[in-house]
Specification:
Blueprint lengths: L4 H5 L20 H13 L21 E5 L5 H19 L3 E5 L3 H9 L5 E3 L2 H10 L2 E8 L11 E5 L15 E4 L5 H13 L9 E4 L3 H9 L5 E5 H10 L9 E5 L7 E5 L4 H12 L3 H6 L7 E3 L12 E3 L8 E4 L6 H9 L10
Parallel strand pairs: 1-2, 1-3, 6-7, 6-8
Antiparallel strand pairs: 3-10, 4-10, 4-13, 5-8, 5-9, 11-12
Helix pairs in contact: 2-4, 3-9, 4-5, 6-11
Length: 353
């Protein structure tokens, strides 16, 4: 039997850092707030409403809320996090509910209201959240047994035979992005365009289609000439779904590595509870989670890229990227996003009330 990941690696206990005071606690925007309010209202009762539901003896919430932001398949994404939720429930002893929220902005506003306790979203969304909500990253996805393997790339993909071979060639083209607040689906590509002398607002025809999968499929359908998306959607996620096959796309541009997808927790939770959540998330990998009984249903055979040690093993679906594990993260891991915003003068980087 293998030990949980932290025991095998000898990793030290993760210190959950308090964010302290913020320079700016204003809401992202009135429009964002109203959109989030509609989302939360649509979910029924506000996620993790406080008050009488807390355990009066311990001060712990009676329920934890774990927010995810679906792409086109909400059920698949939620199922991939159910084993992680099972680990959190095992370690904390607190029932934990997955809440599918339709936008990153909705999750952030729920965090401002302290109605979402745990969340996963892109690196840029954490950058925005950290300016308006008391949240701390505790973990980031690790795709393989190699530490640091959760770093992602943004790709500019085109149909075979396209005349776009580099970032310089996108001038005057129809360009599919995912969302203005997506690191891999917009921001890194926009910075690269600026560096190439291309205004990403005026020198191209930008189309924001909402998700990585839709960006790729709309590019292939001819709705745009190039799509900027996260690399896993092109190399593994969409091929695994049978949506694209090898040779359906070509890569015209590749970004530098971007920090892996964070899991963040609310600083309003007690230090003891936050430490327990860290233990649950980082203390297992996908294989030891299966051995612990966290995924009788949502599991798969260990993929080839995990190496010979895991060949033939059964593993839990461990998060939306199909990670091997989650490794410890801290706020400084995402300083790159601030640098991107300094280079790119865009409203989405400013949290103005």
């Amino acid at each position: 039997m293998r030990w949980p990941a932290t025991m095998r690696s000898g990793a030290a206990d993760t210190e959950v850092l308090s964010k302290g005071s913020r320079m700016n606690k204003t809401l992202l925007s009135t429009a964002t707030f109203l959109a989030a309010a509609m989302i939360l209202t649509g979910c029924g009762a506000s996620p993790n409403a406080r008050g009488g539901d807390d355990d009066s003896a311990s001060g712990a919430p009676s329920e934890l809320v774990f927010a995810v932001v679906p792409t086109d398949d909400s059920e698949e994404l939620e199922n991939s996090f159910r084993p992680i939720v099972a680990a959190i429930e095992e370690v904390t002893g607190i029932p934990t509910r997955i809440e599918a929220v339709s936008s990153n902005a909705g999750v952030i506003e729920a965090q401002v209201a302290e109605r979402v306790d745990i969340a996963t979203y892109g690196a840029f969304s954490y950058y925005l959240a950290s300016d308006v909500a008391e949240v701390t990253p505790i973990a980031k996805d690790q795709r393989t047994p190699e530490p640091g393997s959760g770093a992602v790339l943004s790709l500019g993909v085109v149909a075979p035979g396209s005349d776009i071979a580099s970032i310089e060639d996108v001038r005057g083209k129809n360009v599919c992005f995912t969302d203005p607040a997506s690191t891999t689906g917009y921001l890194t590509a926009a910075v690269a365009m600026n560096e190439a002398g291309i205004d990403p607002e005026n020198d191209i025809n930008p189309l924001f289609v909402g998700s990585h999968d839709v960006a790729v499929t709309q590019m292939l359908a001819g709705d745009c000439d190039v799509a900027f998306v996260a690399e896993p959607f092109v190399t593994s996620i969409l091929p695994a779904r049978g949506i694209i096959a090898e040779g359906d796309t070509e890569t015209a541009w590749t970004s530098d590595p971007i920090p892996g997808t964070p899991i963040v927790v609310g600083d309003w939770l007690s230090e003891e509870l936050r430490a327990q959540i860290v233990e649950a998330v980082t203390g297992y990998d996908a294989v030891t989670a299966y051995e612990a009984g966290f995924c009788d249903e949502h599991n798969r055979e260990a993929p080839e890229q995990w190496g010979a040690e895991y060949a033939g093993e059964t593993a839990c679906m461990w998060g939306g990227t199909g990670a091997f594990a989650f490794e410890a993260a801290e706020a400084a891991d995402y300083d790159l996003i601030g640098e991107i915003c300094e280079a790119l003068d865009t409203d989405v980087c400013r949290s103005e009330g």
